[in-house]
Amino acid sequence: MGYMENSSRLFEWTNESLFLVAYSKTEGVAWCSAFIIVAFLVIVGNALTITVFASNKTLRKKSFLLVINMACADFVLGVLAMPLFIYRLGGDSKLWSIEWGYSLNLFYLTVDTVCAQTSIITAAFIAGERFFAIGWPLKHRSIAHRRAYYITVSLTWISSIIISSVIIGSLHKSVHISIYIWMTYAFTLTIIICVCYIGIFKSFTQGRKFMRSQNDAKGPESKRSTKTLLLITFVALACWLPLIVTNTFTVYIPVDKNLLLLVNLINFGNSFANPVLYCLRIPDFRKALWSRRGYKGKRAVGRLAATTTAFHLQVALKHAVDVSGLLDHKESKDMEDIDETVTELRTWIS
């Protein structure tokens, strides 16, 4: 009996949050297409981001470790949570038949909640880290070691798992209690980010920038990195606020189904917006991305040229043997050795 009650409450959470009424097939096709495009962009964009950051040492700076952490959370969100979201949406639109049981629903809620909360918590940590770096630069330099950033990354996931457990666990008592808990936590993060933004803005307007010597060549680079990280946090906040406000209204009044899907699409879109910001705002990231493509192109051309050379070498060797008239058994054996050598050469090149 308890299992059935828990299952019904989890279904109630999903229905009240997203699927208030049935969707027509036309609406289902339109919304599923939009979410599929966003999911594809999220997966590809964050996969490229993780690859570029992992393969380029110049990008593995301490301040960008939180950015990499956000990319990992967004990638998992795009690979696991968004396909399940589309699967459920298409089923409710009668585009296909679905089997949405308690276990699948619990898995979707867990992955979606943990990854989404990790992303917004990371954004709050980025804002706090930049505020501390600008307000107290000497203290920041003394404690901001790489180990401290690794601990911070671990804290984002631990905090997300704890908060997600509380939110999902409270569904067993009441959907409204779960929404109230999530609202309180979300508004708290929003206030923290806003306070950090106000403090950073005052520091810049009052001329309190980084404490550095005039010969410090990293000054402009640090300032640009700060603006980039703050822009990432601002975009995350802008994509989360509509969802927070809309979910707050659902507790008190009915909300249009298309509006609910729109704010969820905007929220998922934040996971794709970050890689775009990296390309626009981080020159090293942009160079590494294009150089990687150029390297692959040069490598492909090199393979083609080497393979062609090996082929011509094989033809020339055969022609030389034919002209010399060395056609006895021993020389045929030598020819086979030559063919094997050239074949191995072509295999090694490719």
UniProtKB/TrEMBL annotation:
CDD domains: 7tm_classA_rhodopsin-like. Residues 45-278 form the G-protein coupled receptors family 1 profile domain. Pfam families: 7tm_1 (PF00001). The chain crosses the membrane at residues 28-52, 64-86, 106-127, 148-171, 177-201, 228-253, 259-280. Keywords: Cell membrane, G-protein coupled receptor, Glycoprotein, Membrane, Receptor, Transducer, Transmembrane, Transmembrane helix. SUPFAM superfamilies: Family A G protein-coupled receptor-like. It is a multi-pass membrane protein. Its main location: membrane. One of its GO terms (cellular component) is plasma membrane. Gene3D superfamilies: Rhodopsin 7-helix transmembrane proteins. The keyword Cell membrane applies. One of its GO terms (molecular function) is G protein-coupled receptor activity. It is found in: Cell membrane. This is G-protein coupled receptors family 1 profile domain-containing protein. It comes from Pocillopora damicornis.
